[in-house]
Amino acid sequence: MELDILLTLQTAGRDFINPKRIRLLEQIREQGSISRGAKAAGVSYKFAWDAVADMNALAGRPLVSRETGGKGGGGARLTGYGERLLNIYRLLNQIEAMAVAAVQDERVSLDSLLSVVSRMGLQTSARNQLIGRVEQLNPNDISHKVSVRLENGDLIHADITERSARRLKLETGKEVLALVKAPWVQLACASEAPSEARDNRLYGTLVGIDQGAEFDEYRIALAGDEPLCALVSRIGPPATSFRIGEPLVARFAPDQVILATLE
Amino acid sequence: MELDILLTLQTAGRDFINPKRIRLLEQIREQGSISRGAKAAGVSYKFAWDAVADMNALAGRPLVSRETGGKGGGGARLTGYGERLLNIYRLLNQIEAMAVAAVQDERVSLDSLLSVVSRMGLQTSARNQLIGRVEQLNPNDISHKVSVRLENGDLIHADITERSARRLKLETGKEVLALVKAPWVQLACASEAPSEARDNRLYGTLVGIDQGAEFDEYRIALAGDEPLCALVSRIGPPATSFRIGEPLVARFAPDQVILATLE
DNA sequence: CCTGGTTATATAAAATTTTATATAGCGTTT
DNA sequence: AAACGCTATATAAAATTTTATATAACCAGG
């Protein structure tokens, strides 16, 4: 379904800005007067004049400066503040359009605002974005260790500075997004003994390989079909070859995890 | 100014969902019938019935399932799809509220959608977020080298995989956000000779020091007052002491830069 | 088979929003 | 001093939205 977004901003229960007023403001800017702007926007002069007076009053400072008399009888122009509001409105609409697109994606969890925002079009070069909740905080070490319980039940650890933990207002139960760059993810057979006890270890099965010029991309399905992506360099000694369907363990260091959270 | 956000979704020029209809849907869920829901929402029964029929028709599948007759005369309940739409609407409103808050921040550039989105409440443990435009792409190396021109004129480089560059649809002129973790930024006197030619080198002046238990936070003002933050461990050999106002150079490795972009 | 409270539907009335129209005042230009 | 084309303001008319009211149909349960 094609959805158009109409955004209205109210203050004290009265419309401050709505689509119709925005169209009017645009036409006033274009035409240089309220009367011509009203005609161009397809509304009556009274409607236009009332709208302008109302907006100016609600904002406390004018969006439209008006002059009576003079050459051409006077006229009206947008103030810098009026121009700024048009910009803001345009931006808010674009953001809402991204949000609507994100929300129509069946994969996003509607229970999680973070899930929507993280898929709202902000792509990072960090390939893996895992959503979970803070399960434990260890403020004792030099690097603050954060345990994050993913939605599929897996547990991962992130090392961040104590200062960052404070800044993100991390606390048990808070929802976080863990960013892990694909080149930092290493793969091994699931049966292999742990070599680095400190590493995160996520078990899954190989579901796809994409061969590139310099890197091979391995797509792994974790528990609950949570996707994970690893990039393995083809330069240097040839990697162990894995087969589709094979159970694997994906490893990455806690200090390479970036956490993101809302507010 | 306190702004309330009213969101309306239209399709084919007709209202699909608007605040009044949302209030109605909520009350129908609460009350178990259209007539009681209408009363609770403060609208007439005809208005409510028309709205429900209209929404069901526009969506192509029912938001509200209705039954006539039976014990209690029948009733109406939200379908799963109806519940989902309520969730979506709630989320969209929250996102828009974040956007409105971000946009009221005088610091954000209204010319840049990316600037707004990046400040829309998504905090990362990567302390430095620098906005700029791609100036050059070097697709030849193993690691794709991306040159980013910041708004203040500075130039930085990021090493990312060729695959990521494709995924982000990087091209000259595209706006990007560079994430750099504060612990990865190293400081030196501005006069000091470059030790690692590959590193990014940004010149600025020290404007503040925040002493912590394990890390000292140095705040640097780059050209155009662009802020940069470096964390220096207090463990190990004591760092050179810098003075407020002193010109410094901040260095960080290109492969530690994460790029983010929209779409 | 009757009752109750609902859905379903239609029509008229009321309320609200928007337009149409008219007129006064303004200040530069001719 | 007159003309011009606008702002500023008011009032009535028109259009649209919403409510009020009425009535038929529905169907499990007493």
Describe the structure using short key phrases.
homodimer; alpha+beta; OB fold (Dihydrolipoamide Acetyltransferase, E2P); five-stranded antiparallel sheet; 15 strands; 28% helix; DNA-binding
Task: Explain the overall architecture.
The structure is a homodimer of 263-residue chains. The first copy, chain A, is an alpha+beta fold. Chain A folds into two domains: 9-102, Winged helix-like DNA-binding domain superfamily/Winged helix DNA-binding domain (Arc Repressor Mutant, subunit A); 113-260, OB fold (Dihydrolipoamide Acetyltransferase, E2P). Helix content of chain A is 28%, strand content 38%. Chain A has six helices and 15 strands. Chain A has helices at residues 19-31, 34-41, 45-59, 80-104, 113-118, 162-167, and strands at 4-11, 14-17, 64-68, 74-78, 122-124, 128-138, 143-150, 155-161, 175-180, 186-189, 200-211, 215-222, 227-233, 247-252, 258-262. In chain A, the strands form four sheets. A five-stranded antiparallel β-sheet of chain A has the order 8-7-6-9-15. In chain A, strands 10-14-11-12-13 form a five-stranded antiparallel β-sheet, with no helix packed on it. In chain A, strand 12 and strand 13 (227-233) form a beta hairpin. Chain A is elongated. The two termini of chain A are 32 Å apart. The mean pLDDT of chain A is 89. The interface between A and B is large, with 71 and 72 residues. The structure holds a DNA duplex (30 and 30 nucleotides). Chains A, B: Pfam families: HTH_1 (PF00126), TOBE (PF03459). Chains A, B: Residues 123-189 form the Mop domain. Chains A, B: One of its GO terms (molecular function) is molybdenum ion binding.
